[in-house]
């Protein structure tokens, strides 16, 4: 190694102490302020779910207690009072027909909905990514078998799957586990299709070939080279799975394999609230709003992760700010 | 417009470019008169590409900070509005990028991409634009341009892609052509053809040329003035004759002395050991039916331990295809390859595409180490650092991402990665094409060293005949998918039998600008001869069918 | 039957005399999948079917309680019984014709009844099978080798005689069902008959798409008003669209745009959320018809299952129920009335007011606790309530959770077991699988106590190996005997109070806890005239409706 | 290509048979006495037994399945009481409840669901890709944030709410559109269109959110790539770059996902169909499952399976055309 060569690098080497990949990732993630805000919002939601008993104790309401006196029976059971019966006792009003406390039901509902939908999403993404990768990389036969298996799962309606499960699964299996499993089983196909199609494009790239030459097995190549590139579509799609899973959870309740009443869940609340959006709008808007905030915060976090995972996008992001500054200075200069 | 012609086409004053804390270009000033040609040579990573980008304002919204002033054809690039910039880009000044594969949209036919760009500036019907695309493709020497215009970039060889980019630039008939290493993937005959073409255009249309190159010979053949760069600064600038003939700066002298000579052969092949790889009658056919194309057509070769097989040949003759088949990345259509468990590696022709943009280069280099089961982080870092250092990169840039590197630097990362695996055989596909001669000499020396130490077998695909001579024991000349001539280096270089080999040798650029002009004329003649020959061959084929 | 089918008098904008002409639209939720008279299970001949099928007798097309009477239709009277009401004889009116102009004969009525015994055409009410001599063995005309069912005689084309195996004073009610519609043997196409049944009524079927999803009925030129005192048949044609969502039906009716101004629904109530809106709109409220159909929703116990074998536990629950919560769960006081009697609160059923275990509006937890303590459950009790998963229904999770909450106050912890509809029906109707504590409903096949009480409380109607409705497995000889006694009466007015008395007596055993009777609230289009809602069906009678 | 078609055909047969087996097994295990349901609640045990025989429910499940397979390939005969109903191959059996061949029922319903799916598909692709494109183009700005918010609202609101709101606004209140109703295209193309417009819009509003998000994210990925730089350097407008070059990079996931969605939607957009009173396959499925009408359920599920396989095959072919680096498998 010639001295000259080493020296020639010195100019370029005047950089801050290098950071490892993970640390760089965090740095890039934290650089996005919206992500921090969204993460805090999401954490708050999780906190609300975990602290549901505490919060309802604070309010002094039981999520399952009926208050027939608070609804107008002759008018179909609309909550008495304005804004769905909001009062000091019932912070967010009461449910039509039953008069159950909405705040209590919402925070308890967060437990089921966030827990089930979130875990199910993770499982779905895991299954989807694994099978999608296997289909794309495992050769023609693996692709055929997996793709056709996916077709079977896609074509089987939830109704039939629900019926099947009622028949096989013993009552001893805890409901949340069962629901999570069912949702995971019915909902991975989208992820798997996306992963398969993207991986098919990616696998012809030189850097994947290079990794294969490095001596990695297919699995390792998939994990190391393809996964990071697949993160963008998978995260984007995965975030959308959360509200989709909340609806599946509600649909499962119809089939009798869902959360058992009277336990509340956002999905069920949304479904029940459907017809009430005119006469008792808060009943619909509250769970819908919570779900929306959840999805929005997840979206922003997901978007941030996506950006942080892609060093090129990350540097572009930084630039967006600068270019605006550039534009400003340009404008000033032209005056 | 009239104003523009009176003033300099390009006027760069005190240009500085920083990427974060990296100062890539610092205090660079130069100007270029209309119709003139300026060559920028210099060390890999010295800021050549970065400066070229600045001429088109391409650093805008990328995170780079640019200072100083840049005026191109009367436009202040730094302050121009987006619309003004768009008018400038392509229409007035066109750029040929350094990384040809990644610079084309993989989803669209090449002809369409050229046509699209053409229409933005020249308007006209889609059809006319397509016709124009075919025309320029033909001018840059793409055979059967009408058909090839419909191909996607991945169906092109490295050199063909590079020519496609040149064609794109020429399509709009710009006043200024900024060509960043435009001939790195071209064999010498095609390279000469391209350089002649550029020369011709300058004469016909008065196009200005800013040629970034590491190849002093190329500069000598095509420019009036040279600018020598190092570490982001100009070290010397002047008429090509003076700078190359009587260099003042120490760095320029060093550079010139490192230029490999056609007659400088490798120290006699140590000992040709047992065969590492034997290929028999390899064929590769792309596509099916009518659109099928035979890229490699009955190639047999053997690579032995401790030996270097140089492969030279026309752009698009199937060198990359052959190399990929040898390492097993591409299935053969027919023929057999015996590797007997030889650990093989490849240095890819396109360094950008061969590096995962999401992983730091250190991690990419560490890949083979991790794959072989090394878990100790410290050891990995140490070993990768050592490798980076050996290819002339700063080990501290372990955690940097590929897009933060210059073309030549990425190429060296690719070499480091291939070496990390400690393979027995490496197929190097144009491994030094983007390196300045000093770095190039250093890297070839490194390979030779390893070969001596480990008995490494090398397949060295390159278009630079001098380099090939320097590193190879034997050399194979490829044309149209076949090996037209094979033998010991001295034999092939000394007494070439095949006319194509002779033509190749004749086309090697010389560092002497005067000689270059003479040879340009001679080449023209030879080319015409060859074209007649090819026509005859084509007719024979038709007759046989 | 157990189905909540249909009910009473709306105040449509009925100014001006109704006129003939126009097209009536019917916007329904459930398609008329069965349109074969043999397969239909209707109360009083149904609404749409009775436009096409005339029967020996029919329901009186009058509003309110008058509408619970049975009147002659094809026959000249409501039937002549023999002394002990085991033989019933009917004579046809003159000039009765099918849509093709051919005459209607009693042989066709006999054939129509016989068809309903065929396995291919199952689905009707069980009474013919249970009452006709030999009915339990008969397998229908396709398998009898042309012999027919001997207990139906047709001495001539105008006379038909039914031989029953026991006295049945309510036979005239049975003769209102569509199985008594004539079917010409030559036109019988078996399972395909429903796509074009031969009309004997004022309208004929010109279109039956997608298994009853879209029906178009047009005037039957061979129907004569002179022979039919009941059906008014004002519109020229009737267009029945079904498969519509309930909220969309109500939207369309309230908007009343274009053809929807002449639209009604025969199966869709206003939902609870819609009630609140309609209530605030005078014009809309004027277009709502309210009706009562004989139906009761109740809690059923299986006294073979612990702890419900203990009457005290059952009574405790009867005291603890919160009827206002239960009523709210199905839409509030406008859509349901709290019930303490099993019989619906109508005179025709013999309604006799009683409340053996007064729970007040929202339950008497104290009294319930007291009883539980007596029963040895001083520390409370945990039980499982089985319900259907059908959302929003009277047997669904909403009512179940309302009860759960009410019983909690009495120290009873209720676990819920929701079953999918089929599973639920099969479970609660199977003597071997029947759970101890579940939700149930029962509706009238005709407005009388007989079909209301007997299937539920008559010990001889316990079905061991099939669908059982006597869920309390009650087999009380005194009850059985009283049922037989009342059935002998052909004076229905005299029979009614005795059903009421029987209901009160059975109520003491607390094998069921009545919860509520549904109320029907339905919108009609703004051009609809002559809305008649009888207490028999609880919904407007489309044979009376006019659109002009 | 021939190889591809043959393999796909084989795959389709496999999928359809697998689906039918699963449905048979589920219905075998699921609660609910079919004969009782078909016969009616108040049937006597003897009558139930007759129905049981008539429907051949007494046979072991594999025999029933065998009959089904026979019908599929050779047709079957069924008694209609007075005579015999012949069900030509491919016979999916006779509906327990409707007494007509399942194939006929499905053939009747297909145009209905087909109209719904195809219209909605076109709309949601346009809407989804358009929104995604716009938000990638205007990335970082207020427009993008608004679009993101709107798509997410669209996605997290139940179709029932969206649909009903649309009906109330456009049909009841404004009266601009007729209440949704299916009219066969062949009867009256205009009515067909207006009657289906709202169902299409509601479905599209919900489905398009997915596409919008995906398109946007894939496009941002592509925008970071080097070839985009080339087109910038040649003066292409941002709009052209986003709309053409970046969009092309987003095509892969969109094709994959839309095949899946369109295919599975042939199994019925149950909620949409029932809200808008469109008697399509989804409604049929729900009704049939409720009534344990096994032959119809098998038929519907197999139809869905068929369309899923078909859509995927089309997607793969399209995809190989769009990206020639991918080989058709
Ligand atoms: N996006 C970036 N971020 C950080 N550093 C960068 C970036 N782009 C270039 N650099 C650094 O700037 C310096 C100049 O790069 P440039 O690409 O101009 O080199 P070059 O002269 O073209 O070299 P080569 O001949 O190898 O292509 C190099 O050291 C490179 O590592
Ligand atoms: N995937 C492909 N599909 C179709 N044709 C291809 C494909 N890959 C390469 N080719 C064709 O095969 C021929 C040989 O290509 P190859 O890349 O091996 O050339 P090369 O000798 O490496 O050229 P260069 O020096 O320009 O890199 C070219 O004509 C090219 O167009
Ligand atoms: Mg460069
Ligand atoms: Mg090559």
From TrEMBL, chain D:
It comes from the Bacteria. Pfam families: BPD_transp_1, BPD_transp_1_N. Keywords: Cell membrane, Membrane, Transmembrane, Transmembrane helix, Transport. The chain crosses the membrane at residues 12-30, 116-137, 149-179, 191-209, 254-276, 296-319. InterPro entries: BPD_transp_1_N, MetI-like, MetI-like_sf. Its main location: membrane. It is a multi-pass membrane protein. It comes from Streptomyces noboritoensis. This is ABC transporter permease. Belongs to the binding-protein-dependent transport system permease family. It is found in: Cell membrane. Residues 110-319 form the ABC transmembrane type-1 domain.
């Amino acid at each position: 190694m010639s001295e000259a060569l080493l020296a020639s690098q010195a100019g370029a080497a005047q950089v801050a102490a290098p950071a490892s990949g993970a640390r760089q990732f965090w740095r890039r993630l934290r650089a996005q302020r919206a992500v921090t805000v969204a993460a805090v919002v999401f954490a708050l939601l999780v906190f609300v779910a975990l602290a549901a008993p505490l919060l309802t104790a604070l309010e002094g309401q039981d999520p399952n207690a009926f208050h027939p006196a608070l609804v107008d029976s002759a008018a179909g059971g609309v909550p008495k009072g304005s804004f769905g019966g909001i009062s000091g006792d019932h912070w967010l009003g009461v449910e039509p027909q039953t008069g159950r406390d909405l705040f209590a039901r919402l925070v308890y509902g967060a437990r089921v909905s966030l827990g089930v939908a979130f875990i199910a999403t993770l499982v779905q993404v895991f299954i989807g990514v694994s099978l999608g990768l296997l289909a794309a990389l495992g050769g023609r036969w693996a692709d055929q078998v997996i793709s056709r298996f996916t077709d079977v799962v896609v074509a089987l309606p939830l109704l039939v799957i629900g019926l099947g499960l009622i028949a096989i699964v013993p009552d001893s299996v805890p409901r949340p586990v069962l629901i999570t499993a069912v949702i995971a089983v019915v909902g991975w196909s989208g992820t798997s299709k996306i992963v398969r199609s993207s991986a098919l494009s990616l696998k012809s790239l030189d850097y994947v070939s290079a990794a294969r030459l490095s001596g990695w097995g297919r699995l390792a190549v998939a994990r190391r080279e393809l996964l990071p590139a697949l993160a963008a579509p998978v995260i984007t799609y995965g975030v959308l799975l959360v509200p989709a899973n909340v609806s599946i959870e509600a649909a499962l309740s119809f089939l009798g394999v869902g959360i058992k009443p009277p336990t509340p869940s956002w999905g069920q609340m949304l479904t029940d609230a459907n017809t009430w959006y005119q006469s008792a709008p808060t009943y619909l808007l509250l769970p819908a709003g919570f779900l929306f905030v959840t999805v929005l915060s997840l979206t922003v976090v997901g978007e941030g992760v996506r950006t942080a995972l892609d060093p090129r996008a990350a540097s572009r992001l930084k630039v967006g700010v600068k270019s605006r500054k550039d534009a400003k200075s340009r404008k000033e200069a032209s005056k | 417009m009239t104003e523009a012609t009176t003033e300099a086409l390009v006027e760069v004053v005190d240009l500085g470019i920083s990427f974060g804390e990296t100062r890539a270009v610092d205090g660079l000033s130069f100007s270029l008169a209309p119709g003139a040609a300026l060559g920028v040579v210099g060390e890999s990573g010295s800021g050549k590409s970065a400066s070229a980008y600045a001429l088109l304002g391409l650093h805008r919204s990328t995170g780079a900070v640019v200072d100083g002033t840049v005026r191109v054809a009367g436009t202040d690039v730094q302050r121009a509005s987006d619309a003004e910039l768009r008018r400038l880009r392509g229409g007035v000044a066109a750029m040929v990028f350094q990384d040809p594969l990644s610079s084309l949209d993989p989803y669209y036919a090449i002809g369409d991409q050229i046509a699209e760009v053409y229409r933005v500036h020249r308007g006209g019907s889609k059809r006319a634009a397509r016709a124009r695309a075919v025309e320029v493709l033909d001018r840059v020497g793409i055979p059967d341009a009408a058909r090839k215009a419909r191909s996607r970039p991945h169906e092109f060889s490295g050199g063909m892609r590079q020519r496609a980019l040149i064609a794109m630039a020429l399509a709009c008939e710009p006043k200024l052509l900024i060509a960043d290493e435009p001939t790195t993937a071209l064999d010498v005959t095609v390279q000469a053809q391209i350089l002649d073409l550029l020369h011709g255009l300058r004469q016909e249309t008065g196009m200005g040329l800013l040629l970034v190159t590491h190849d002093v010979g190329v500069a000598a053949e095509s420019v009036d003035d040279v600018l020598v760069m190092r570490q982001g600064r100009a070290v010397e600038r002047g008429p090509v004759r003076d700078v190359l003939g009587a260099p003042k700066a120490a760095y320029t002298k060093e550079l010139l002395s490192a230029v490999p000579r056609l007659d400088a052969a490798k120290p006699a092949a140590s000992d040709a050991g047992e065969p590492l790889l034997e290929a028999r009658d390899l064929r590769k056919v792309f596509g099916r039916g009518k659109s099928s194309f035979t890229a490699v057509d009955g190639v047999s070769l053997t690579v032995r331990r401790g030996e270097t097989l140089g492969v030279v040949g026309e752009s698009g003759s199937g060198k990359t295809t052959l190399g990929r088949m040898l390492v097993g990345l591409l299935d053969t259509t027919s023929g057999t390859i015996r590797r007997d468990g030889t650990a093989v590696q490849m240095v890819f022709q396109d360094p950008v595409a061969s590096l995962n943009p999401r992983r730091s280069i250190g991690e990419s280099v560490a890949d083979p180490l991790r794959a072989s089961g090394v878990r100790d982080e410290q050891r990995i870092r140490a070993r990768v650092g050592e490798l980076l250092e050996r290819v002339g990169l700063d080990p501290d840039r372990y955690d940097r991402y590929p897009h933060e590197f210059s073309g030549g630097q990425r190429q060296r990362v690719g070499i480091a990665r291939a070496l990390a695996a400690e393979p027995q055989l490496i197929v190097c596909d144009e491994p030094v094409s983007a390196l300045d001669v000093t770095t190039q000499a250093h890297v070839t020396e490194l390979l030779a060293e390893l070969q001596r130490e480990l008995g490494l077998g090398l397949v060295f695909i390159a278009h630079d005949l001098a380099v090939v001579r320097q590193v190879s024991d034997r050399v194979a000349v490829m044309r149209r998918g076949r090996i037209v001539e094979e033998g010991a280096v001295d034999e092939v270089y000394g007494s070439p039998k095949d006319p194509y080999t002779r033509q190749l040798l004749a086309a090697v650029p010389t560092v002497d600008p005067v000689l270059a002009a003479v040879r340009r004329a001679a080449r023209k003649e030879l080319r015409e001869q060859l074209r007649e020959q090819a026509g005859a061959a084509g007719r024979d084929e038709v007759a046989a069918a | 039957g157990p189905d909540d089918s249909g009910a009473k008098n709306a105040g449509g904008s009925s100014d001006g005399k109704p006129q003939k002409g126009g097209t009536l639209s019917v916007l329904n939720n459930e398609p008329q999948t069965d349109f074969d008279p043999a397969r239909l299970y209707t109360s009083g001949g149904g609404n749409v079917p009775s436009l096409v099928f005339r029967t020996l007798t029919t329901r009186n097309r009058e509003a309110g309680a008058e509408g619970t009477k049975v009147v002659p239709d094809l026959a000249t009277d409501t039937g002549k019984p023999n002394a002990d009401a085991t033989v019933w004889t009917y004579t046809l009116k003159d000039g009765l014709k099918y849509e093709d102009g051919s005459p209607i004969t009693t042989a066709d009525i006999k054939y129509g009844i016989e068809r309903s015994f065929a396995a291919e055409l199952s689905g009707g009410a069980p009474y013919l099978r249970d009452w006709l001599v030999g009915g339990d063995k008969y397998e229908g005309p396709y398998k009898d080798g042309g012999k027919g069912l001997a207990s139906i005689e047709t001495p001539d084309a105008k006379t038909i005689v039914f031989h029953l195996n026991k006295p049945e004073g309510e036979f005239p009610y049975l003769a209102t069902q569509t199985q008594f519609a004539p079917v010409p043997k030559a036109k019988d196409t078996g399972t395909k008959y429903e796509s074009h049944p031969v009309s004997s009524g004022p309208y004929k079927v010109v279109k039956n798409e997608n298994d009853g999803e879209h029906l178009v009925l047009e005037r039957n030129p061979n129907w004569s008003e002179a022979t039919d005192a009941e059906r008014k048949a004002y519109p020229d044609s009737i267009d029945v669209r079904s498969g519509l969502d309930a909220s969309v039906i109500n939207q369309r009716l309230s908007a009343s745009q274009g053809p929807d101004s002449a639209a009604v629904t025969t199966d869709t109530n206003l939902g609870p959320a819609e009630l609140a809106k309609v209530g605030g709109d005078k014009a809309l409220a004027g277009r709502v018809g309210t009706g009562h159909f004989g139906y009761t929703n109740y809690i059923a116990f299986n006294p073979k299952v612990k702890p419900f074998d203990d009457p005290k536990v059952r009574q405790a629950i009867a005291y603890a129920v919160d009827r206002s919560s239960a009523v709210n769960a199905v839409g509030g006081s406008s859509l349901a009335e709290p019930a303490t009697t099993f019989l619906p609160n109508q005179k025709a059923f013999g309604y006799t007011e009683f409340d053996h275990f007064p729970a007040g509006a929202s339950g008497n937890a104290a009294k319930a606790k007291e009883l539980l303590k007596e029963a040895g459950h001083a520390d409370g009790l945990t039980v499982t309530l089985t319900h259907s998963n059908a959302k929003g229904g009277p047997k669904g999770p909403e009512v179940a959770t309302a009860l759960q909450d009410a019983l909690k106050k009495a120290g009873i912890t209720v676990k819920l077991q929701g079953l999918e509809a089929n599973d639920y029906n099969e479970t609660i109707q199977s003597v071997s699988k029947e759970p101890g504590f579940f939700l149930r409903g029962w509706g009238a096949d005709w407005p009388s106590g007989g079909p209301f009480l007997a299937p539920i409380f008559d010990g001889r109607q316990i079905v061991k190996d099939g669908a059982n409705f006597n869920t309390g497995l009650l087999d009380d000889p005194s009850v059985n005997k009283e049922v037989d006694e009342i059935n002998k009466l052909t004076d229905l007015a005299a029979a009614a109070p005795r059903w009421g008395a029987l209901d009160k007596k059975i109520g003491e055993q607390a094998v069921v806890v009545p919860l509520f009777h549904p109320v029907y609230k339905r919108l009609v289009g703004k051009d609809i005239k002559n809305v008649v809602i009888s207490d028999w069906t609880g919904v407007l009678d489309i044979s009376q409706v006019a659109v002009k | 290509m021939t190889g591809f078609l043959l393999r796909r055909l084989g795959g389709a047969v496999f999928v359809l048979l697998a689906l039918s087996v699963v449905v048979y097994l589920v219905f075998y295990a699921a609660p609910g006495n079919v004969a009782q349901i078909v016969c009616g609640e108040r049937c006597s045990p003897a009558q139930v037994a007759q129905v049981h025989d008539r429907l051949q429910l007494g046979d072991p499940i594999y025999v029933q399945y065998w009959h089904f397979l026979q019908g599929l390939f050779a047709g079957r005969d069924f008694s209609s009481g007075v005579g015999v109903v012949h069900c030509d191959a491919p016979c999916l059996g006779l509906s327990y409840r409707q007494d007509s061949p399942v194939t006929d029922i499905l053939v009747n319903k297909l145009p209905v669901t087909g109209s719904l799916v195809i219209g909605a598909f076109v709309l949601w692709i346009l809407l989804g890709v358009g929104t995604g494109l716009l938000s990638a183009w205007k990335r970082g700005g207020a427009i993008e944030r608004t679009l993101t918010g709107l798509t997410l609202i669209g996605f997290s609101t139940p179709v029932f709410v969206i649909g009903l709101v649309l009906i109330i606004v456009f049909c009841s209140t404004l009266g601009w559109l007729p209440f949704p109703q299916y009219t066969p295209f062949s009867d009256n193309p205009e009515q067909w269109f207006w009657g289906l417009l709202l169902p299409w819009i509601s479905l599209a509003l919900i489905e398009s959110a997915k596409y919008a998000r995906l398109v946007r994210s894939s496009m941002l990925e592509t925008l970071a790539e080097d070839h985009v730089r080339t087109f910038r350097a040649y003066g292409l407008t941002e709009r052209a770059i986003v709309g053409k070059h970046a969009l092309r990079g987003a095509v892969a996931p969109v094709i994959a996902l839309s095949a899946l969605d369109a295919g599975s939607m042939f199994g019925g957009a149950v909620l949409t169909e029932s809200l808008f009173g469109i008697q399509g396959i989804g409604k049929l499925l729900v009704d049939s499952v409720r009534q344990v009408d096994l032959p119809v359920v098998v038929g519907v599920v197999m139809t869905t399976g068929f369309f899923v396989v078909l859509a995927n095959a089309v997607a793969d072919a399209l995809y190989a055309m769009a990206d020639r680096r991918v080989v058709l498998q």
